Amino acid sequence: MTGRTVRTQVEKSAETRRRIMEATVRLLQWQGYSRLTTPAIAKEADVSRGALTHHYATKEDVVVAAVEYQLKEAIETTRRYVEQNADKDISVDEIIDYLWRLMADGLFYVTLEWLPEMRHNALFKTRLIPVVQGFHSSLNEIWAIISRRYHADPRQAEVVLNATMCLFRGMVAQTIVRKDTEYFDELLSFWRQLLRQMFANGLGIDISACSTREERS
């Protein structure tokens, strides 16, 4: 077997896994975790059942791989955004809009499907925690851009980022029961204005008045 043949087989295997993971992400968003089946994944990915089970023995295995794939894609996308804008005069509004698109374009809808399983399945949770933490770290990198621009305290900027992401998670969840673009646009406009004012004033968050990480846990 030649080196090129080996590489070709590796490439084909990687392509099969990619198709399976992308199909799983789509089905999680379209159908949900409880309705997801391995036959449906194989059909959506246009691979045989045997090919799917060769790479992933169980539904849980393929979901873990798919979530890892989606979050790592989001991490890479965010880090490219950071690199492209590190030396630019990027505004608070632009970062808010980027983060909203990141969450609302499917990422958090899929998250809403696997979070309940993570809550009740310890092994599933253990397998996903590291990649979730990597995603959060990439978000901290993007927020560092704006904190440097406004000479804001990085810890205070991190608190603002976390509050922003919590707001967006709640907003995305609410879109399930409320189809009202104007309503969500008003919330985004309010948040942009609030953060512009906060950063213009150096944030001024009294971190010492907040509970410590240990107390919060």
From TrEMBL:
Pfam families assigned to the protein according to its UniProt record, in alphabetical order: TetR_N
DNA-binding region, residue range(s): 37-56
Domain HTH tetR-type residue range list: 14-74
Keyword DNA-binding listed: yes
Residues of the signal peptide: none
Keywords: DNA-binding
Record Gene3D superfamilies: Tetracycline Repressor, domain 2 (1.10.357.10)
Name the UniProt record assigns to this protein: HTH tetR-type domain-containing protein
Species in which this protein is naturally found: Thalassospira xiamenensis
